[in-house]
Amino acid sequence: MTGVKNDELHTIERVISSPDADAIGGAATYCVGCGSCAVIDPAFRIAKNADGCYRASVVGEPRDWTAAERVCPFASSVDENQLGEELFSKQSGVKYDQHLGYYLSAYAGYVAVDGWRSRGTSGGMISWLAAKMLQDGLVDAVIHAKDGPDPKNMYTIQISRTVDEIKAGAKAKYYPIELSEAIKQVREHEGRYLFIGLPCFVKAVRLLRREDPVLMKRIPYCIGLICGHLKSDFFGQAEAWESGVPLDKIARVDFRHKTPGTRASDYAIEVRRTDKDEPIVKRIAELSTANWGLGYFKYNACDYCDDVLAETADATFGDAWIPKYVSDDKGCNVIIIRNQAIQDLFDRYRNELVLHDSDAAEVYQSQSSGFRHRRQGLAERLYIHQQRGEWTPTKRIKPSLDGIPERRQRVYAMRTTLKNESFVAFREAVKAGDFAVFNKHMKPLERKYWRVSIPFKKRMMNLVRRVINRLRRIIKKL
Fold it and tell me: I need a labelling partner for 375 at 20 to 30 A (CA). Which of 149, 177, 368, 410 fits?
C-alpha cells in the first residue's frame, strides 16, 4: 500500500490489508467497513468487495495515517473499557460488569402504546426511545439504517428528522452498511444527533467524536444494538432465493417478519419483489442459511470483536432470548441503560412501557452463546494465530486455550470453516443458477459441525423434538 515493509505498516493498514490466514483465498481481512476512516480522510474509500461486504481501501496518500488509525474500531489503541470509563463511570449509582460494561440499570420489556411493538423487531424499544428523544428535544435528528434506494443497496444509514421517518426505519436489518456518508452530512448541518448502530459502529462514532470537536458536539447520544455478527449482502440474497424469489427479482428483504401464535424466536422473512408479484413470507426455520450459530456470510472482522452488548452506547437493546419472555410472539427487549439522561426519560414515560427489572446475570443469559463465541472462542482464535506468528488486532481478550476443552476447540474451528465456505458455496450456486448447489456444498460441512458440537444423545433428543413439533404443525393445519 505504501511501499514500506510489512513490519513497518501502520495498524490501520494491517486491519485493511492483512488477510486472515484462515480465510479462503486470503480475501478476508479485519476491516468491518464501518467508514470511520473515510470520514476523517478522503484517501480512504469504502466499497463492497466480491463477498458483498463493505471494506476500506486506500486510493491516495492519507494526510495522517495515525488519525485514521485512532478512529478505526479495530486499529485504535483505545478499547471499550477506556471509552466506557470516560463516558459513564462518574455517574451516581453506576455499576460495572465484565459483560455489560458500565451500566445504571437493566430491564426486559416492551412498548405498550402506539404500535411501536408491532412495528419493531422485538419489543419496539429502539424506535420508541429515538422518537421520545426527538420529541423531548434531546436531539434534532436520528442517524440509523433505513430502506435503501435499490436492490443492490437494500438498506443504508440515513438521517431521520421526524417521528414518521423514525417509524419507517424500524426493525433490524441483517445487511452490510457503512456510516461515512451520513456522518459527513452531520458535519455539514448543525443540530444534535442520535446515532443507532452495532457495537463496532457505535465505538467508531465515539472515536470520531474524540477526534473531531464538531462531531463531539453534534452526536451527544448513541444507542447500541446487541450483535451476533454483521452479514454480507449474500445473506439476504440467499434467504430470498431459497424462499423462491429469483436473484434478479429480489427488491427487499424484511429480515424480522413477526409470525403470530409462535415463539418470538420463530419469526419469518418477507421478500418483496421487483416484478410486483405478492411478497413471499417464509419461516426462518425452513431456511438453510438462517441458523445464526453457523455464521454463514459473516464478516471476518466479527470473529475478532469482543463487544456483544455495545458497551460504549448510552443504552443497548436486543432480543430477550430468555425462556420466560421468548414464548411471547409479539417480542420483548432486553435493555441496558448507561446514561442518566436516558434513565430519566424511561422514568418519565414509564406508563408507556411494560418493564421487568433485570440484572447482569439475566442479560448474560439472554446472549450466552454469543459471549462464549466472542470471548472464549476469540481467545482460541487469537491463540492459533499467535502460534503461527500471524498478525491480529489487539483485543481485551488474551490469546489462550486455558479452560477450553478439545471438543470446544473443534467447534470453533468448524465455525471458521462454515463461515469461509459459505461464501465459496454461494458463488458456486450463483454461477450454476441453482440454489441447491449451495446446500450440496454446505450440508456435509454442517453435518460434521453438528457431530462435533452436539453429543450423540442430545442430537437424538433434538431430532425427536423436531419430529414432534412438525407433527403438531401438521395436525394444527388439519
Answer: 177
Q: What does each of the 478 residues of the chain score in pLDDT, given as a tens digit?
A: 434 445 578 999 999 988 888 877 656 889 999 999 999 999 999 999 999 999 999 998 898 899 999 999 999 999 999 999 999 999 999 999 999 999 999 999 999 998 888 887 788 899 999 999 999 999 999 999 999 999 999 999 999 999 999 998 888 899 999 999 999 999 999 999 999 999 999 999 999 999 999 999 999 999 999 999 999 999 999 999 999 999 999 999 999 887 777 776 778 889 999 998 899 999 988 999 999 999 999 999 999 999 999 999 999 999 888 888 877 778 889 999 999 999 999 999 999 999 999 999 999 999 999 999 999 999 999 999 999 999 999 999 999 999 999 999 999 999 999 999 999 999 999 999 999 999 999 999 999 999 998 776 776 777 778 788 778 877 777 6
DSSP type of residue 228:
S
Considering Cα of 455, then 457, then 459, then 461, what sign does the dihedral take? negative
Sorted by sequence, the CB contacts under 8 Å of residue 334 that are 6+ apart come out as 106, 107, 108, 226, 317, 318, 319, 320, 322, 358, 362, 363, 366, 367
Note whether 81 and 398 are within 8 A (CB).
no
Cell of 402: 486455558
Produce one character per residue of 324-342: b if its CB has 16 or more CB atoms within 10 Å, e if not.
Answer: ebbeeeebbbbbbbbbeeb
* Strand 221-225 to 250-257 pairing: unpaired
Angstrom distance (rounded) from CA 104 to CA 338: 5
Q: Give strand pairing partners of 101.
A: 97
- Which residues, 6 or more positions from 466, have their beta carbon under 8 angstroms from its beta carbon? none
Cell of 165: 421517518
In this structure, are strands 221-225 and 44-48 parallel, antiparallel, or unpaired? Answer: unpaired
The span from the CA of 268 to the CA of 290, in Å, is 10
